[in-house]
Design brief:
- There is one protein chain.
- A hairpin with a 4-residue loop joins strand 4 and strand 5.
- Strands 1, 2, 3, 4, 5 and 6 form a 6-stranded antiparallel beta sheet that branches.
- The chain is elongated, with a radius of gyration of 13 Å.
- The chain has 97 residues and is mostly beta strands.
- It is 0% helix and 63% strand.
């Protein structure tokens, strides 16, 4: 198993003032890809963190992103080319009026 742990907190009420903290730890360094998908499975945001064995990121949704449930997944590609995708974590976006 390349990825030892993954955590996304908080999972509800995410908005411009309340980010989702994404953290993960792997046995070896690699390139991480964080994907945020809407309920239809379309990627609404994605970014890469290169050559790390620990991931500590924040996701703050765009102010125009509609309220709803989104899925966060993290892919890790190790230096030897092994790819792992985490189990999807759901978050709820609730924009401030």
């Amino acid at each position: 198993m390349a990825i030892q742990t993954i955590s996304v907190t908080p999972t509800t009420g995410i908005n411009q003032t309340k980010s989702a903290n994404i953290s993960a730890w792997a046995y070896n360094r690699g390139d991480w890809t964080i994907n945020v998908k809407n309920a239809s499975g379309q990627i609404v945001e994605s970014w890469i963190v290169k050559n790390e064995n620990e991931l500590k990121e924040k996701w703050t949704p765009d102010k125009n992103l509609p309220n709803g449930t989104y899925t966060i997944t993290v892919d890790l590609v190790t230096k030897d080319g092994f790819k792992v995708t985490t189990t999807p974590k759901q978050v709820t976006v609730l924009q401030q009026p």
